[in-house]
Write a structure and sequence with these properties.
Number of helices: 16
Helix content: 25-40%
Number of domains: 2
Structural class: alpha/beta
Largest sheet: 7 strands, mixed
CATH class of the largest domain: Alpha Beta
Radius of gyration: 25 Å
Number of strands: 26
CATH topology of the largest domain: Aldehyde Dehydrogenase, Chain A, domain 1
Shape: globular
Strand content: 15-25%
CATH superfamily of the largest domain: Aldehyde Dehydrogenase, Chain A, domain 1
Distance between the termini: 51 Å
Oligomer: single chain
Length: 543
């Protein structure tokens, strides 16, 4: 049964039979599969076992539940996946990159019902593999399906705009978008389905071929989708690799066969991958990296609203979101009242298993994460901060009870690193200039949240903040959606912009067909268009 944060108690199931039948999972050996060149193959080599962050057993004896295993591939399989993707792309001459937009759309649309057919299985794995609550797991799946539909619609609109000819300065031209080549997609563990697909789907639909490597945590949930990919796309258009990154990703990058790197993770790993590529000027990168999003609570803020949004912003999915609020700056005149209300709200959060109704705090999937968070809390309390909420900092196996730290200083490690977990540091301030200085000096810059009512005071913060971060949220938490909004970051937080329409552009390039507007050329172009002899030089309208 779930428990409140302020009342730590054992919450792990004593037996698997104690879990509702529709929420249980079985250990599947068949999940050691991979997709290369249009075939779903069974792996008979070494495997990595996957254990759930959800522990099962009597109180004090609960242990992580084994879920299955995935292939520990070698460089040979990695190179086979690359070869398949390169054959399918065929230096831009393959059937997929030269296919009409309407036909590529049909392939993607055929994938949607096949994906929907395994919804329940993927949702269960999101809960068991990464500890995501049932409502959030369902939301991630459904949002991903909706993202695919929105991407299809956005491409139709983009292609319609390119279906017309331009006549300028004696030239006739058609300007459309064309693919870039082979794309390596690597998503994060916190949104292993959605954020992988926000790069994979636009890369595919624009005519690129793809190799994707699932994250270390959140790898099994992709297995039910392999047949859907194989049945929906031509051989070699979608390929998967699994295993140690240095073993399977290193050869992909160092050989120079990857044209686009789509990676969401740490800046350290991104830099390593980029530097492995022998032709850095040729490599395109789409990166989502670290963030340390601040909230600034001004003295005239609506405290009830600010507390509600900060609890959601800091602790949704245990704070394991790049858009999470990771440090709260509160004006000293209201800091005590704010922290009192924040601590009470955090104390009311339910801690429990992902499938239990109303649960907001669940087990953490990363091995050693609880110990690291405990170290951050100890360093802060040793420097003068206190744990403001009852139950804060309690650890039970993979469960870390959310912790409000107050007062903290910008120099504390918890305010210098991205904690990516349920630790909420609160910094009292006297002058907004000190907060701006911290944000300016920060090596990352994704988003910020402002809470207040005075338009002049808010405007004085908004103007410099938009030059430090890429989204300023007024009286609300930081967030990615709607997916039609640009999503990116400054400094070390991101490279490239993602939204439904931006992603189509980032995985393609503008290509131009042009000729002098002579009668002979105009006759040739007219014949090409009337006879539908070209898929690029075309006025076909995609409905």
């Amino acid at each position: 049964m779930p428990t409140r944060v302020r009342q730590p108690a054992p919450v792990f199931p004593a037996t698997l039979e104690a879990v509702p039948a529709e929420m249980r999972v079985e250990y599947y050996h068949a999940w050691a599969r991979y997709l290369i060149d249009g075939r779903v193959r069974t792996w008979d080599g070494p495997c990595q076992e996957v254990c759930s962050p959800v522990c099962v057993g009597p109180a004090g004896e609960a242990r992580p539940l084994p879920l299955g295993h995935y292939p520990l591939m070698t460089a040979a399989e990695s190179e086979a996946a690359l070869a398949a993707a390169q054959r399918a792309y065929d230096r831009g001459c393959g059937a997929w990159p030269t296919m009409a937009v309407a036909d590529r759309i049909r392939h993607v649309e055929a994938f949607i019902p096949r994906m929907a057919a395994v919804r329940d299985e993927v949702v269960r794995l999101l809960m068991w593999e990464i500890g995501k609550t049932l409502p959030d797991a369902r939301k991630e799946f459904d949002r991903t399906v909706e993202y695919i539909r929105d991407t299809v619609q956005a491409l139709k609109e983009l292609d319609r705009a390119g279906a017309r000819f331009a006549v300028e300065q004696g030239f006739v031209a058609q300007i459309r978008r064309s693919p870039l080549g082979v794309v390596l997609c690597m998503g994060p563990y916190n949104y292993p389905l959605n954020e992988t697909f926000t790069t994979l789907i636009p890369a595919l639909i624009m005519g690129n071929t793809v190799i994707f490597k699932p994250p270390k945590h959140g790898v099994l949930l992709h297995a039910p989708l392999l047949e859907a990919f194989a049945e929906s796309f031509p051989p070699g258009v979608v390929n998967t690799v699994y295993g140690d990154g240095a073993t399977v990703v290193g050869p992909l990058m160092s050989g120079g066969g990857i044209d686009v790197l789509a990676f969401i993770g740490s800046a350290r790993v991104a830099a390593l991958l980029k530097h492995q590529h022998p032709r850095p000027n040729r490599l395109r990168c789409v990166l989502g990296l670290e963030a340390k999003n601040p909230a600034v609570i001004l003295p005239d803020a609506d405290l009830d609203l600010a507390v509600k949004e900060c609890v959601l912003g800091a602790l949704s999915y245990n704070g394991q979101r790049c858009t999470a609020l990771k440090v709260l700056f509160v004006h000293r005149s209201i800091a005590a009242a704010f922290v009192e209300r924040l601590a009470a709200a955090v104390g009311d959060l339910l801690v429990g298993m992902p499938w239990e109704e109303g649960v907001q705090i669940t087990p953490l999937p990363e091995e050693g994460k609880c110990a690291w968070l405990t170290k951050l809390v100890a360093e802060a309390t040793g420097g003068g901060a206190r744990i403001a909420n009852p139950g804060g900092g309690h650890v039970d196996q993979s469960l870390f009870y959310p912790t409000v730290l107050y007062p903290t200083t910008p120099a504390m490690e918890v305010n210098r690193v991205e904690q990516f977990g349920p630790v909420v540091p609160v910094v009292p301030y006297d002058d907004e200039r000190a907060v701006l200085d911290w944000i300016v000096q920060s090596p990352v810059g994704q988003q910020a949240a402002l809470f207040g009512r005075d338009p002049r005071r808010l405007a004085a913060l908004i103007d410099p903040l938009v030059n430090q971060v890429c989204r300023v949220n007024l009286n609300s938490q930081c967030q990615r959606g709607p997916d039609t909004f640009p999503f990116t970051g400054r400094k070390d937080s991101a490279e490239g912009t993602l939204s439904v329409s931006d992603a189509l552009r980032v995985f393609s390039i503008r290509s131009v067909f042009a000729c002098k507007a002579t009668p002979e050329n105009e006759a040739i172009v007219s014949e090409i268009v009337r006879g539908r002899l070209s898929r690029f030089v075309s006025t076909d309208f995609v409905f």
